[in-house]
């Protein structure tokens, strides 16, 4: 330093200044964010420069003078706690620096809940839960163990019904978990629930009755069963769930169904009654008839029946006990008799007899020996059977398929011919009434059986 006055006088002085290295305080922790759940353990990393003495004030009443200390921080309540951590650093020259950083300690939730019941038997599968977790600003995450999850923000009492796989009635074990958490911390707890397999409930239908062969489709109404064992009381068994069974012999059968499941074994019974069936039988008298005059009589030999249905083979049906029937056409006829009881329509029987009746067509042509023509004039020769006027000469016939009638006078002169059995001679020749006399007729006919008839005779014409 040089000082000069106004007269030019001056004086100089000098001193030496000693400057020591600057101290820079700094630190971090193994938890770089210096925040976490209660208790928060921090191990500090001292990053100070040019210092050799340190003083730590952790803000919770704890201090330290070591270079890299550790400290455990707590929060006493349900709210977070913030601690100001101060590091003071000093060099050998007495230079000092300090730094303050904050540590945050978050409260840890305490998860707890009450559940009832812990054990139950299906079909009961509902539980009641009460959240007993410690108070705080928490979120609750529930896992019911059956795929159901739930998130809530309250402590309400809840109920839950477990999801039970359809058709599976085995004992099931569920683990219910509760996780209580905030943005930084959580706690969890689990409890086990058992829903035991139910005891089988056995039931089936029908309790049937009828006539053999009695086929029954059994309907299994049992619940909670895995295996089924049927005893039909006739030496037959089944392990199907819904079997079909046929009873062939009359009797009373005690049907048993035994059902087993994980929960146990149970059984049930039903009665099936098989009645004595009716028996169809008959005979025909006579077995051979001549058409068109003879009829057949049914002789009913059936037993235990109240309903009869006769199929005569020609489209005719009777419901009489023993019908009498006349056939129109020749042939061999099959007769079928269906019988049944009134009480149980399924109690029926049937018998079919082939060629039970042989209906033969009789072949006959019979001419009268006289007739009296109508004097009012010639006609077309058509006649009415059994006409009392007797104006047309015609035959009584059966079984004729082809027909030819010729009329001659006594000198052999041809007077009339007809090939239609329904047209006879009206007594006229060339539009004039023939004189009263004896005339000769000649017949050629073919029967339905193929038999051929040739005959001749005479007839007297009266006037």
What does this structure look like?
The termini are far apart. The protein is about 0% helix and about 50% strand. The protein has no helices and 44 strands. With about 475 residues, it is mainly β. The model has no long low-confidence stretch (mean pLDDT about 95). The strands form 13 sheets. A 5-stranded mixed β-sheet has the order 4-10-9-6-7, with no helix packed on it. A 5-stranded mixed β-sheet has the order 12-18-17-14-15, with no helix packed on it. Strand 31 and strand 32 form a beta hairpin.
Q: What's the structural blueprint in terms of helices and strands?
A:
Blueprint: E1 2-4, E2 10-12, E3 27-29, E4 35-37, E5 40-46, E6 53-57, E7 63-64, E8 70-73, E9 81-90, E10 96-106, E11 113-116, E12 119-121, E13 126-131, E14 139-143, E15 149-152, E16 158-161, E17 172-181, E18 186-196, E19 204-205, E20 209-210, E21 214-217, E22 219-220, E23 227-231, E24 237-238, E25 244-247, E26 251-261, E27 264-274, E28 282-285, E29 288-291, E30 296-300, E31 307-311, E32 317-318, E33 324-325, E34 331-340, E35 348-361, E36 364-366, E37 370-371, E38 396-398, E39 400-408, E40 414-418, E41 428-429, E42 432-433, E43 437-447, E44 452-461
Parallel strand pairs: 4-10, 12-18, 20-27, 29-35, 37-44
Antiparallel strand pairs: 1-2, 3-5, 5-8, 6-7, 6-9, 9-10, 11-13, 13-16, 14-15, 14-17, 17-18, 19-22, 21-25, 23-24, 23-26, 26-27, 28-30, 30-33, 31-32, 31-34, 34-35, 36-38, 39-40, 39-43, 41-42, 43-44
């Amino acid at each position: 330093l040089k000082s000069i006055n106004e007269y030019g006088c001056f004086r100089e002085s000098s001193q030496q200044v000693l400057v020591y290295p600057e101290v820079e305080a700094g630190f971090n922790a193994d938890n770089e964010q210096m925040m976490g759940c209660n208790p928060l353990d921090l191990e500090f990393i001292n990053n100070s420069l040019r210092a050799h003495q340190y003083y730590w004030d952790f803000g919770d009443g704890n201090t330290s003078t070591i270079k890299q200390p550790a400290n455990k921080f707590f929060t006493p309540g349900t709210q977070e706690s913030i601690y100001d951590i101060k590091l003071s650093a000093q060099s050998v020259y007495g230079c000092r620096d300090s730094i303050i950083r904050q540590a945050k300690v978050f409260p840890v939730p305490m998860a707890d809940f009450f559940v009832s019941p812990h054990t139950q038997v299906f079909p009961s599968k509902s539980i009641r839960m009460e959240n007993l977790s410690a108070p705080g600003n928490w979120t609750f995450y529930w896992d019911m163990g059956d795929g159901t999850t739930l998130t809530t923000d309250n402590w309400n009492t809840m109920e839950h019904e477990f999801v039970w796989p359809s058709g599976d009635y085995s004992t099931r074990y569920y683990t219910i978990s509760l996780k209580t958490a905030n943005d930084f911390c959580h706690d969890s707890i689990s409890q086990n629930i058992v829903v035991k397999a139910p005891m089988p409930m056995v039931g089936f239908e029908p309790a049937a009755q009828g006539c053999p062969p009695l086929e029954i489709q059994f309907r299994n109404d049992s619940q909670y069963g895995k295996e089924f064992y049927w005893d039909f009381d006739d030496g037959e068994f089944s392990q199907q769930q819904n079997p079909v069974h046929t009873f062939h012999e009359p009797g009373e059968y005690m049907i048993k169904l035994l059902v087993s499941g994980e929960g146990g074994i149970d059984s049930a019974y039903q009665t099936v009654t098989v009645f004595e069936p009716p028996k169809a039988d008959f005979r025909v008298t006579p077995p051979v008839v001549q058409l068109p005059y003879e009829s057949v009589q049914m002789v009913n030999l059936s037993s235990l029946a109240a309903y009869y249905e006769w199929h005569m083979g020609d489209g005719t049906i009777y419901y009489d006990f023993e019908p009498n029937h006349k056939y129109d056409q020749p042939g061999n006829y099959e007769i079928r008799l269906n019988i049944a009881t009134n009480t149980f329509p399924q109690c029926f029987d049937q018998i079919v007899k082939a060629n039970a009746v042989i209906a033969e067509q009789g072949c006959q042509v019979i001419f009268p020996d006289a007739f009296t023509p109508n004097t009012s004039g010639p006609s077309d020769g058509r006649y009415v059977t059994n006409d009392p006027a007797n104006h047309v000469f015609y035959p009584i016939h059966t079984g004729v398929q082809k027909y030819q009638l010729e009329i001659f006078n006594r000198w052999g002169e041809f007077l009339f011919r007809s090939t239609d059995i329904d047209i006879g001679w009206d007594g006229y020749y060339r539009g004039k009434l023939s004189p009263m006399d004896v005339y000769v007729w000649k017949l050629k006919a073919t029967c339905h059986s193929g038999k051929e008839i040739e005959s001749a005779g005479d007839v007297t014409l009266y006037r």
